[in-house]
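Example (one chain per record):
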Amino acid sequence: MSSLNVSKMLLNLIGVAMLLPVSGFAQGQERVINKLSWRTEPIKILKLKTKGKPIELGKNFLEEDDWLKGLTVTVQNVSDKPIARIVLDLSFPRPEGTSETISTFSEKLVYGLDPSDAQDAGAQKQVLPGESVDVKLLEANLPFIKAALVELGYPEKITRARIMVEFVTFTDGTAWNGGDILYPDPTDPKRKFNPKVPLIRPIPPDRSALPSRPPLLLFQNASLQSTYAPAILNNENFPLWKFLLLQDPTLPCNTVFVTTQHLDCGTGGSGCTYSHNVFDDSIELLGLRDARKDLETVLCKKSDGTTCSPNLISNFKRSPSRRSDCRRWVRPAGLQHGQWSH
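Predicted structure:
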């Protein structure tokens, strides 16, 4: 073989070698995970990784279609209480301008158990103040996520996701949700309620059971049926003058958060449930509106976060406003600063 042919062969090999990494990157696509934040949060996200590689919130990264595989969120307890359970909400935004009547699919990343679910108190995981833990997206749930996105009409290529701290339960049974501390119902400790909105009568579940086949999109009516304005007005936490105040119209609070329940998914008492948030939209409580709700679709889960039913459930979740704090009141004329607070 002549030296000229050898030189040509070497040049060809070098050219192929140089193209290999480019081809590899070309198969990937830019992805991004953003974060929705509350004004106060009991945990702090320290880092993320997917497929074993670190990524940064809000920054694009190149990855294949299986980019959610191995998604791990490291969080730190920045509160002053031990934490028993953490639920992170991983949602997939619809395109800009999509109607609010179109639900967003959300997957839950779960760590730990509610204290009422721990059969052995000594075996209960807890995250002490200052400690950090990994909250993982279960690989077994990935096929269900993919099927749900197809069922809900998402595009074939999913490139964006949002993460939000949804629910944090402390070892004493109280819970943080959307900046408020909720308390366990003595008759059902897993049911957490807003102490500012007293419950007058039990809230009937919208559905007692769900069909297992075929997958069905179910819309849960989240209108409040358990509180009345007189009860609110007689509550010492809400003096009458507060009820008469108007909200700042630039802040999109649109409801009053009441309670969160865990409803059975109709799988024969197997512990397969979904979270059902209850809100009150009534005009009588206009001045007390302290929350924003968004329509989401979820899958039923066991207590460890494992998907246990392919059925899709549509429900309302509590979401931050764009200003991350919508609980502001317009002070009427004559009332001095410092005489009230949100």
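Caption: The longest strand covers residues 307-318.
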